[in-house]
Structure formats: structure tokens, C-alpha cells
Design brief:
2 domains, 3-stranded mixed sheet, OsmC/Ohrsf, 3-stranded antiparallel sheet, KH_dom-like_a/b, 3 helices, 6 strands, Putative redox protein, OsmC/Ohr_fam
Amino acid sequence: MKARIQWAGEALFIGESGSGHAVVMDGPPESGGRNLGVRPMEMVLIGLGGCSNFDVVSILNKSRQAVESCEAFLEAERATEEPKVFTKIHLHFVVKGRGLKEAQVKRAVELSAEKYCSASIMLGRGGVEITHDYEIVELGE
């Protein structure tokens, strides 16, 4: 896996993934940025959410669950001293569909956290306390 990050002046950076996709990162005005993009640590959080959500949806689809929507809401705490690493991250999944089985949703969330989500496992091994929960929203017919 590869990536390239180009400084674009002030606190603005353009990241390009090995697959050719670009993302804009910037700092807040108090750090010399213009708030034109996500912060690098927000990217880490978004990456974790994307990785976990990808797994949950994939596992539920393979389990023949009628998933129509799956959102992951993340909240993180960071250390107060430099380096301001994440210390705690909580993922809350909202899974919507028809006839979803709670045992299958629980299993999907647990498998993602414990076996499949590389980002979650990497952060956890680095000392971040990662927790998760879920809610199921039954959609009418």
C-alpha cells in the first residue's frame, strides 16, 4: 500500500492514495490553516469507521440479512499532552433493515472488532480502548 502527501501551503495538504483517490487535509485557523479539509486525526477516525462499517455490512450481507442502511457514529477522546493520541474510541452502529436478527448484527459487530477490521485491531494493539454497541431499526413494509 502506498500514499503520497503534498504540502500545498500554510497547513494545507493533499493526500493521494495508491489507488489514485485524493483527499484534502487542513488545520484549523488557530494552527495556521484555513479549515479547507479534514484534520489528519479525523482521517484516522474516519478510516476506522469506514473499515468497521465495511466489515459489518459485508458480514450481514453474507448472513442474508436484509440490511438497507448501516451508519457508524464514532466518538473519540485524545490525550491532553503531546502526542495527543487517541485514548478511547466508541463506535455506535445504527443498522436499518427488514427482519434483522439481533444475534447476526451482534456477531457482525464483534467479528469486525475482534477479527477483521485492521484499523480497529491496530489501534487497539497501540493502546486505544475501543468499545462498540449497536441499535437495530426495523423498517416497515
